Amino acid sequence: xxxxxxxxxxxxxxxxxxxxxxxxxxxxxxxxxxxxxxxxxxxxxxxxxxxxxxxxxxxxxxxxxxxxxxxxxxxxxxxxxxxxxxxxxxxxxxxxxxxxxxxxxxxxxxxxxxxxxxxxxxxxxxxxxxxxxxxxxxxxxxxxxxxxxxxxxxxxxxxxxxxxxxxxxxxxxxxxxxxxxx
Length: 182
Known about the structure:
single chain, metal-binding, mainly alpha, Endonuclease III, domain 1, DNA-3mA_glycosylase, Adenine_glyco, DNA-3-methyladenine glycosylase activity
C-alpha cells in the first residue's frame, strides 16, 4: 500500500501540502477551521479534488473567517450551492456554517479553538470521534482522524523515514510532546 509520503513529493498540489502543512502543529484558529472545512468536504472524494478547489473554498467561505461564515444566511447558502468551484453538497455547506458557529462558542468558552483542542488532548481516537460528533456536524471517524493528524494532534501523517517528519518533530506537535512525556 502506498503512503502519502510516496505519492505527494513533487506533485503540484500534494507536494506543497505534504511538505509544508500536513502534520505540522497549527495554532491559528482560522487555519484550524480551514482544515476542518477541507476535511469535511473531502468526504467521499479524493484529497486532490479538494486541494485543486482550495482557493475556491477560500474565496467562497470568506477566507475561512469564522465570524463571517457563522453569519452566513440563506442567500449565502444559495450562493455556495451554485458555486461550481467548490463541492456543492447541501449537507457539507450546512455543516461548515453550523460548525463556524460552534467554533465561535468554543472560542468564547476556551479562548480559542486551539485551546479547546488542547484542553481535550490527548484522547484516544474513538474518544476524539465521540467528542467531535457531539460538538460538530459531519465529523465521522475519517474526518476527525485526518483533521487531527493534519494539525499535529495525532501521529501518522508521515512515515518516520520521511524527511518532513523530522521538521514536524522539531515543531513540537501535540502527539509527540505527549508521547515523550508518557
